[in-house]
Amino acid sequence: MTKIYPLIICGGNGTRLWPISRTQSPKQFQKVGGPDSLTFFQTAVERHHEDGFADPVIITSVRHRRTIHEQLDEIGVKAQVLLEPMGRNTGPAVLAAAMMLQEQDPDGLLLVVPADHVIRGDINSTIKAMVPAAEDGYVITFGIKPRFAETGFGYIVDDGPVVGHNGLRQVERFVEKPPARKARQLVESDIAYWASGISMFSIKTILEEYSRFEPETVDAVRKAYDKAEEREEGLLLNAIAFSQAKDLPTESAVFERTSRIALSPLDVDWSDVGSWSAMYGIAETDHQGNVLQGDVIAVETQNSMVRSTGRLVTVVGMKDVIVIDTPDALLVTQVGHCQSVKKVAEFLKEEKRLEAERHVGKEQENGLLRMVASDKVDLSQARMQPGQKLEIAPVAGREVIVVRGAVTLGEDDNARLLKEGERIALDDATPTKLRNKTGHQAELLFLNVTTPAVVEDDKVLTLKNYA
């Protein structure tokens, strides 16, 4: 039986769901509902974790490698992980996955699935019904019957049935994010579908079609894959070669140009959850029309969404508002203005505010707590338990201050005991190793005042246990 490999694409910054979503922790890794719900990514993985589907392939930025594995472990799912050194849109991502799977199962099928959508209903029955068409060489894009004239979505126009494949439709054309008048015409035509971002094709087909239309990108991704570095967290594509791939989505690179394209309508509830209004729309409301998540009290409030990730939030006498509270930022907006939230995130990024990049003041792994963070200063606190060992990534200008207890810096003959009240500049060329050899908890402060705090991946401050 032909295997279907779900390819979960974890890209994007999710600026429209700020302040929950940040560049370093985007929408797909946030919880769909309350504190006990799964994340968007976990939901996407579990959706296709059943008979007929192989273990998923995940492709994501190298900066999210730890988050991917943590969230997979939480739901007990195994996956192959491809790591991108930089984003080059969905086209090169799909290509890299196809090249990897070609070596393992050249007759397999790829099911491309966004990591940050919400889907309710039986999607897998339709997908499995399309397997014969994919085996016959069709590039299948799945469409959603539109509920309203949305200008932010792409549309697929139906051109009649495909002979020999029940439920499969020909594609007349694609329409990318039309103006309001055109969107209304498409919806009223009753032959247009929202482009869901979900597609399926054989590994052989996508490699053939990509080679036909974008041979230079195929060559760049092939080199990036052949020179990839095998890491514990996944296969890291070669940065120099991957940067030469054309930055294009699969839709414009192949789908809009190939004669093999076909449409399969999906009968499901679907949302790309592109705003807080959309988040409100997919959630279950109470008798007042409110969505209350976390420690929230609402009095004389209607048709509103209030979400707290920690402290108590109370709202009184409100209507049609969105209130999102996180430890380091608060968003208050009216329902009709949620699409403009990304302007706030963009402004913060221009100002080099860390709140655009990551959550400040939130305890992270190994007890790390970010206390102050800007483009000039980074101050973090960490607690080390007795016997614990930590390794610190090298960054110029970083100091450690022992606030309580004592720790050993370095190993063997170069080891040095740092006692309470002592401070020392850390090595900016090689990782620094700290160990708490005492029987008491140690408290440390890490200070950096010479290099920008908002940098790629984990250069600000990374602590990890070592053996």
From TrEMBL:
CDD domains: GDP-M1P_Guanylyltransferase. InterPro entries: GMPP_N, ManC/GMP-like_b-helix, Mannose-6P_isomerase_type2, NTP_transferase_dom, Nucleotide-diphossugar_trans, RmlC_Cupin_sf. Residues 294-346 form the MannoseP isomerase/GMP-like beta-helix domain. Pfam families: ManC_GMP_beta-helix (PF22640), NTP_transferase (PF00483). Gene3D superfamilies: Spore Coat Polysaccharide Biosynthesis Protein SpsA, Chain A. This is Sugar phosphate nucleotidyltransferase. It comes from Mesobacterium hydrothermale. Residues 6-287 form the Nucleotidyl transferase domain.
